Every structure is written in structure tokens, then in C-alpha cells.
């Protein structure tokens, strides 16, 4: 059993613990024996080839999917319970955006504070305006999601979670459709959220540079298993010897087939 | 056969579960009043005109049929009572609910199914907003508010259709006075309220089924279409099926 929940004041950063997690769809098991923890205020990066289960892992962390074995706890509370997420204010940037298609970009951003009445309309306007400017989206405010490019949609998805002022923020490939300048802006944002607000972040990415520049620690997933874990330097740059048996010394560490492609320069 | 029964029961269970979820959010209703008003508008806008047209012709055809039979017996004065009763107790609530299924339930399912398929429902959950609270509850309340008006409107227009035919078709040639007196003498307030109760029950469950079908959609865009078809068909079967039992209970 996880330890008793620490006192949950608004500003203590959030801890995530994943223990012996297994996630299955019917008979196919997508994630096996996943154990790690994300320390409060940490930026934790998950890398891995397509189909390795990164999105499934994030969806389990945010409580959209239930583990078939093992547990995910956030500040000691069960992640399957929606109240846990409401208490810590978690948020997820979906890989495909998941914007509200019937609402304008502005209304997408304003949706959370309006629905939860966290601010007055004037404050919401200010906050939404600032966030749009931060992601160079000022001109898109009145557009609808169907009128946006893929990268813009991604930025709106990020903006929408930033407006929520979450304390635990999960990103599913935040920079995948962005140009290098914009990608740098995103990594700056992730970094400053940690520095200023002690936001705990879990970032799924294919972007080696992003991982290197922002990650405190990272894991490498392959076919639903953790094959490497440690600091970015350890995971990305060193040879087999440095693949730490990081969280559980008894974990069965496999040869990461992804290594070869990781050492190549990222495809443009 | 076993499979079908299992799916039917599963679907039934899902509707009940959804209703339970919605009821839990009932205390949040005051905050959803804006959406209730919006959905009332949508339901009204989509259904009032077509309900009017259809009800008029239903009343008219009914008067024509009964008028033809009754004039051979010289009993035209009973047209009003026959049309009045059939429209109020049976045709108006059933036709109105059918149109609701065709025009509103289909659109509702399409909207919710598309939100499900494109992960908007998931996004709502990660924003700590229950989809049942903002998408289902206000729709159910709206249909409960609009349905009596709609059924009442249908009843009245149906009667009017019967009257117009009775007056202007030469072989019937019934004066409006006699038509309305026949209708009023025979009808009780209960006939109308029973019709309204029927309409209310049909409307509520047609929309509940539509929401459940929408939210239960899985897969890709193709499934949105399937969900819409299923929603309308199940809704209509539900109407005819429960109509029998409600009618028996009301006799
Ligand atoms: N709803 C689902 N039902 C069944 N299988 C699923 C479902 N969602 C994901 N999977 C399976 O789980 C595995 C991991 O999928 P996931 O989306 O997590 O990959 P990913 O690592 O995010 O890949 P990518 O980098 O391409 O986004 C895949 O084999 C996929 O087929
Ligand atoms: Mg993914």
C-alpha cells in the first residue's frame, strides 16, 4: 500500500508513483511491470518508439484508463478516482489535441475557468489573452479548431491546459508538430512552470533535444516495458553499461532496440 | 439470440447507469440553466414546425377516414369526438416523440458520438468536468420542459386539421360548431393530460437513449453513423413498446 497522503496544501508540488503497472485491452497487454516515481516538481520524460505504450501510460496516469494490475497514485491517492485529479489539479495535453471542435480557440481556453468559476470574465479574458500571446496564437483566438494547422492545434491544446494552472501537467508529444523555434518556446514554458510554480511535469516525446534540455530524469519504453531509466545523459548518451537498473534493481532490463535510432540526429 | 439478449440487457444497464450519473449531478442544475435554455431552443426550433405540419395532416386524414365511414350512417357529428380522442391520447404523443427521435435524438447522438470519438469527452474528464453534468443533464431537463408544450401543440393542430377537413370536404360538410361541440362533449381533461404524460415519458427516454448511445460510441468516424442509426431505431422501438403498456395502465 502507498504511504499515507502528505498534507495537501495548494502549493506543495505533486508526487506520482507507479507500481508494477500493467494495462491491458481485452487480451492484449500493452504495458508490463511499469514502476517509477516522479518526484515533486520534477520534469520527467518518457521516450520510446511509436506504439510502445507512451500515450496509454499517460492516459493511465490521468485516470482515463484503469490499470489491470498494479497501481498509480498521485500524492498517495488512487489515480482512478476523479477526485484525486481535481484535488491536485492535473491536466493532460492530448497527442491529437482533443480540442472542443464546436468552440472557438478563445472559448476552448476559457472553458475550464468558466465551468469551474475560478475567475471572473474580465480576469479570464486577461489570462486567456496572455496565454495566447505566450504561444503566438493571438490571431487565432476567433478561429475554430477545424481552421487551424496541426501545429497550431497542438499549441492551443497546450494553451488550454496552461489556463487551468495545473500542478501536475502531462504532455503527450508537445513539440511533435512544431518548428524548432516553437519547440524551444515550449521547452522554456515547461521549464519556467517548474521554476516558478513547481509544477510536476511528465513529458512524452520523440524529441531527443527536448528530453536533453528539460528532463531531470527519463525512462525509455519499448514494447510496453521500461528498458532504460536515469538522467538524460545516462539514458541517451552512454552505452549499455550505464543503463541503470534505476527504480527496481530486480527489474528485467532488456536491450533497447531504440538505441540505434536515438543516437542518430533527429529526423527533420 | 443469446448475444442479442446480452447486448440488449447491457444497453439497458448502460442507460440506467447513465441516468444514475445524471441524477448525482442534479444539485448542479442551477448552474446549467443557460444550457437548459439553449437546448430548449434547439429542440423547439427543430421540432415545432414539422410537428405542426404532420399533426395537421394526421388530424385531417383521420377526419377524412372516419368522416367517410360515418356519413354512410349519418353520424358525422361524432367525427369531432373520434378525432379528438385519438389525437389526444395516441397520435399526438407518439408522432411528436417519433419526430423528436428523428430530428433531435439523431443530432444529439451524432454530437456526443463525435465528441467521444475525437476525445473531447476524455478532455472534459481531464478538466474535471463530468460530461453527464454538462451534456446530458441539461438536455434531459430541456426535453421535460419542452415536450408538454410540443405535445399540446400537436394535439391542438391535429384537432384543427380534423375540423378543416370536416368543414370543407363536401361529403362531410360539418359546421365547425358541431365539430368542436362533439369534440368537447366527449373529451375529458384526463384524455389530454394522459397524452401529455405519454409524451413526457417518450421524450425523456428518447433523449436518454440518444445520449447513452452517443457516449458509448467507440472507434472511428464510421461508428458515429452507426450510433445515430441505432439511437433512432432504439428510440422508436422504445416508443411503440412502452406505448402499449402506458396505454394499458391509463385505461
Ligand atoms: N483503445 C485501445 N484499444 C486497444 N489497443 C490500444 C488502444 N489504445 C492503444 N492501444 C495499443 O496500445 C499500444 C500502445 O499505444 P500508444 O498509443 O500508447 O503508443 P505510443 O507509444 O503513444 O505511440 P505513438 O508514439 O505513435 O503515439 C499500441 O499497440 C496500440 O495498438
Ligand atoms: Mg502516443
Helix/sheet category of chain A: alpha/beta
Characterize the main sheet of chain B.
none
Oligomer: heterodimer
Number of helices of chain B: 8
Ends of chain B: how far apart?
Answer: 34 Å
Q: Please state the overall shape of chain B, judged from the principal axes of the Cα atoms.
A: elongated
Q: How many discrete domains of chain B?
A: 1
How do the helices and strands follow one another from N- to C-terminus of chain A?
Answer: EEEHEEHEHHHEHEHEEHH
Main sheet makeup of chain A: 6 strands, mixed
**Overall number of strands of chain A:** 10
Overall SS class of chain B: mainly alpha
Number of helices of chain A: 9
> Rg of chain A to the nearest angstrom?
18 Å
- Poorly predicted runs of 5 or more residues of chain B: none
Q: Rounded to an integer, what's the Rg of chain B over CA atoms? A: 21 Å
Order of helices and strands of chain B: HHHHHHHH
Cα shape of chain A? globular
Quantity of strands of chain B, as a count: 0
Tell me what you see in this structure.
The complex is a heterodimer of chains A (about 270) and B (about 250). Chain A is of the alpha/beta class. In chain A, about 35% of the residues lie in helices and about 20% in strands. Chain A has helices spanning about 55-60, 80-90, 105-115, 120-135, 150-165, 180-195, 210-215, 230-235, 260-265, and strands at about 15-25, 30-40, 45, 70-75, 75-80, 90-95, 170, 200-205, 215-220, 225-230. Chain B is mainly α and about 250 residues long. Chain B has one domain (about 10-20, about 30-250). In chain B, about 85% of the residues lie in helices and about 0% in strands. Chain B has helices at about 1-25, 35-75, 80-115, 120-125, 130-170, 175-185, 190-215, 220-250.
Amino acid at each position: 500500500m502507498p504511504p499515507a497522503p502528505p498534507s495537501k496544501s495548494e502549493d506543495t508540488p505533486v508526487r506520482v508513483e507507479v507500481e508494477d503497472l500493467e494495462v491491458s485491452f481485452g487480451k492484449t497487454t500493452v504495458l508490463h511491470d511499469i514502476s517509477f516515481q516522479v518526484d515533486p516538481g520534477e520534469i520527467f520524460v518518457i521516450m520510446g518508439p511509436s506504439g510502445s505504450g507512451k500515450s496509454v501510460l499517460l492516459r493511465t496516469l490521468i485516470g482515463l484508463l484503469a490499470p489491470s494490475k498494479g497501481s498509480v497514485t498521485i500524492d498517495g491517492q488512487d489515480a482512478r478516482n476523479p477526485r484525486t485529479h481535481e484535488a491536485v489539479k492535473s491536466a493532460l495535453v492530448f497527442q491529437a489535441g482533443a480540442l472542443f471542435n464546436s468552440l472557438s480557440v478563445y472559448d476552448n481556453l476559457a472553458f475550464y475557468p468558466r465551468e469551474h468559476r475560478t475567475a471572473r470574465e474580465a480576469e479570464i479574458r486577461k489570462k486567456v489573452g496572455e496565454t495566447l500571446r505566450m504561444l503566438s496564437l493571438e490571431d487565432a483566438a476567433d478561429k475554430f479548431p477545424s481552421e487551424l494547422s496541426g501545429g497550431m492545434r497542438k499549441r492551443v491544446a497546450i494553451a488550454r491546459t496552461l489556463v487551468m494552472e495545473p500542478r501536475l501537467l502531462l504532455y503527450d508529444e508537445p513539440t511533435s508538430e512544431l518548428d524548432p523555434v516553437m519547440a524551444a518556446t515550449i521547452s522554456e514554458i515547461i521549464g519556467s512552470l517548474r521554476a516558478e510554480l513547481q509544477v510536476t511535469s511528465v513529458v512524452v516525446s520523440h524529441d531527443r533535444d527536448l528530453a536533453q534540455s528539460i528532463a531531470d530524469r527519463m525512462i525509455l519504453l519499448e514494447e510496453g516495458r521500461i528498458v532504460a531509466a536515469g538522467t538524460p545523459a545516462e539514458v541517451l548518451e552512454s552505452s549499455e553499461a550505464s543503463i541503470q537498473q534505476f527504480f527496481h534493481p530486480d527489474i528485467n532490463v532488456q536491450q533497447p532496440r531504440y538505441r540505434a535510432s536515438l543516437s542518430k540526429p533527429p529526423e527533420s | 439470440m443469446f448475444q442479442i439478449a446480452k447486448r440488449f440487457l447491457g444497453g439497458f444497464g448502460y442507460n440506467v447507469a447513465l441516468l444514475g450519473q445524471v441524477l448525482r449531478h442534479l444539485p448542479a442544475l442551477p448552474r446549467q440553466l443557460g444550457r437548459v435554455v439553449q437546448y430548449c431552443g434547439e429542440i423547439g426550433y427543430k421540432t415545432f414546425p414539422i410537428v405542426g405540419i404532420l399533426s395537421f395532416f394526421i388530424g385531417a386524414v383521420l377526419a377524412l377516414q372516419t368522416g367517410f365511414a360515418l356519413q354512410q350512417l349519418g353520424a358525422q357529428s361524432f367525427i369531432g369526438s373520434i378525432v379528438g380522442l385519438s389525437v389526444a391520447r395516441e397520435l399526438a404523443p407518439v408522432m411528436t416523440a417519433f419526430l423528436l427521435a428523428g430530428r433531435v435524438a439523431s443530432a444529439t447522438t451524432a454530437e456526443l458520438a463525435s465528441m467521444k470519438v475525437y476525445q473531447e469527452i476524455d478532455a472534459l474528464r481531464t478538466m474535471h468536468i463530468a460530461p453527464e453534468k454538462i451534456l446530458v443533464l441539461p438536455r434531459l431537463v430541456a426535453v421535460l420542459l419542452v415536450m408538454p408544450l410540443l405535445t399540446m401543440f400537436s394535439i391542438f393542430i391535429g384537432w384543427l386539421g380534423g375540423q378543416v377537413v370536416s368543414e370543407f370536404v363536401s361529403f362531410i360538410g360539418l359546421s365547425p360548431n358541431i365539430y368542436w361541440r362533439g369534440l368537447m362533449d366527449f373529451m375529458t381533461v384526463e384524455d389530454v393530460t394522459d397524452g401529455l404524460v405519454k409524451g413526457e415519458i417518450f421524450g425523456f427516454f428518447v433523449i436518454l437513449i440518444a445520449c447513452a448511445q452517443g457516449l458509448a460510441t467507440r472507434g472511428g468516424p464510421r461508428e458515429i453513423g452507426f450510433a445515430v442509426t441505432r439511437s433512432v431505431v432504439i428510440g422508436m422501438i422504445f416508443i411503440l413498446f412502452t406505448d402499449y403498456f402506458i396505454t394499458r395502465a391509463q385505461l
